[in-house]
Write a structure and sequence with these properties.
single chain; 466 residues; alpha/beta; Rossmann fold; six-stranded parallel sheet
Length: 466
């Protein structure tokens, strides 16, 4: 197969990747963008298999079947509430694949003639070691992110005073090992040592990051997996892998920066695992102090009867209750009564970027009804009722008012400025940040305790009868 034809197909695949990413920037074009990216990847894989000297397709077919079955099962059985964990695992798989490829390339070279001492040989060693470093960090870091999101370990920051110095020492040790291996590629003991250091570094970078900051971590690990893939592309001499990895790495880093801005975090702190440092634990009894007022569905329906504008604020509680369809039905009933309804979307609501957009799109909520934080915040003062469903941390006034709070400075949805706030929660338990929410004790706030889906259905039924 001619090289020019292969390059043309690779170029077509790269164009499809770029157009696919562009399509993913808007909910209305997201499905088309996803299909374009998938088509580009299919083209890249097929042309690579026919271009390379494949000795036997048995292992390739076996791998495709195994991966296809696992992927199909995950796609059909994983609930939307577990999607962030799935993304974390997929990031880890990407990093692990790059690590395995680099390790295999290195060990094969050591079994043969090794690396040449010229410039190309030196560059080959450098790219192998960079792939090993980033791939191992991505793999172990993603495992920790998964464990935190799955609540296998605490979602609170885990570490000790001065952990950032340990991270700095590990990073310096990894760089030193990389340089020494470049000068002496035959030192296999040092190679395994680099993998071990990188794996530990991945753990220590993510462990001190609290659950509330996990959307930022997922975006960053996604970027790492792309960078590792790009470096692996240099090892294989595969143009499309370099392009794909670079796109994922760059877009992931841009998304990470957007998340940092949305949460008032420092990108440097994310990179080195220093996040959410604040004061000691805050006593919930002092915050609430008997001020919390509960309400039933009938009372909420009566309030909605006279409302002209309602803003629904979805959060992780909505995902847990699978209440997106019930919320859409409530919105339909309100709109039939002439009530203006919009959805306030915080960039980090849920546990990964875009979590709420995907949930609401699944319930066929019109895209123009999903309003981003910067656009919706100025309208809360003209909002009759704000209905908050499980969105705890992204509505917490501590982010504006308490300088000692770990979330201080994080932009939030200003739901407390609405005339009436209705919060639907199972209990008074804190959000993923582990903080009480003074909103619940506000004079204009009513708490509806119970399963989010059932509570919304009950409100809809009472409003429909009014």
């Amino acid at each position: 197969m001619s090289g020019s034809f292969v390059d043309i197909v690779y170029l077509a695949a790269a164009v499809l990747f770029v157009l696919g990413i562009k399509g993913l920037t808007r909910p209305k074009t997201a499905v088309r963008g996803n299909l374009m990216s998938a088509t580009g990847m299919l083209l890249a894989v097929v042309i690579t298999l026919f271009d390379r000297d494949i000795i036997s397709f048995e292992y390739i077919i076996a791998g495709m079947l195994t991966g296809g079955i696992i992927g199909g099962l995950m796609a059909t059985r994983v609930q939307m509430t577990s999607m962030p964990q799935m993304v974390a695992l997929l990031n880890g798989c990407g990093g692990g694949a790059s690590l395995g490829l680099a390790a295999a390339s290195y060990l094969l070279a050591m079994e043969g003639a090794g690396y040449s001492g010229d410039l190309m040989g030196t560059l080959a060693v450098v790219f192998v070691m960079i792939t090993v470093l980033i791939g191992a960090v991505t793999l172990s870091g993603s495992v920790v992110a998964f464990a935190k999101l799955q609540e296998l370990i605490s979602g609170q920051p885990i570490g000790f005073v001065g952990m950032k110095f340990l991270n700095a020492a590990l990073f310096a040790g990894a760089l030193a090992s990389l340089i020494m291996l470049t000068l002496n590629p035959g030192n296999t003991a040092l190679f395994w040592g680099l993998i071990a250091i990188a794996m530990v570094l991945g753990l220590t970078l993510v462990l001190p990051i609290g659950g509330a900051d996990m959307p930022v971590v997922i975006a960053l690990l996604n970027s790492y997996s792309g960078i590792a893939a790009a470096a692996a592309g240099f090892i294989l001499g595969n143009t499309v892998l370099i392009v794909t990895g670079s796109l994922v790495g760059a877009s992931g880093l841009i998304l990470t920066n957007i998340m940092c801005v949305a949460m008032n975090r420092s990108l440097t702190n994310v990179l080195f695992g220093v996040m959410a440092e604040g004061s000691d634990a805050i006593d919930a009894d002092e915050v609430y102090g008997g001020k919390v007022k509960s309400a039933q569905a009938e009372e909420v329906a009566m309030i909605l009867e006279t409302a002209r504008r309602v803003v629904i604020v979805p959060g992780f509680g909505l995902a847990m209750a699978q209440a997106q369809h019930a919320v859409r039905e409530l919105a339909d009933v309100m709109e039939a009564r002439g009530i203006e309804v919009e959805y306030a979307i915080h960039p980090v609501a849920g546990r990964m970027p875009g979590h709420m957009n995907v949930l609401l799109a699944e319930a066929e909520v019109p895209y123009d009804k999903m309003v981003e934080m910067d656009q919706i915040n100025p309208t809360f003062e003209q909002t009759d009722v704000a209905i908050v469903i499980g969105a705890n941390d992204v509505t917490n006034p501590m982010a504006r008012e308490d300088k000692g709070s770990p979330i201080y400075g994080m932009p939030i949805l200003n739901v407390d400025k609405a005339n009436t706030v209705v919060v639907i929660k199972r209990s008074m338990s804190p959000g993923f940040a582990g903080l009480p929410n003074p909103l619940f004790a506000a004079d204009n706030c009513l708490m509806v305790f119970g399963d989010g889906k059932k509570a919304v259905i009950d409100i809809t039924a009472n409003l429909d009868l009014a």
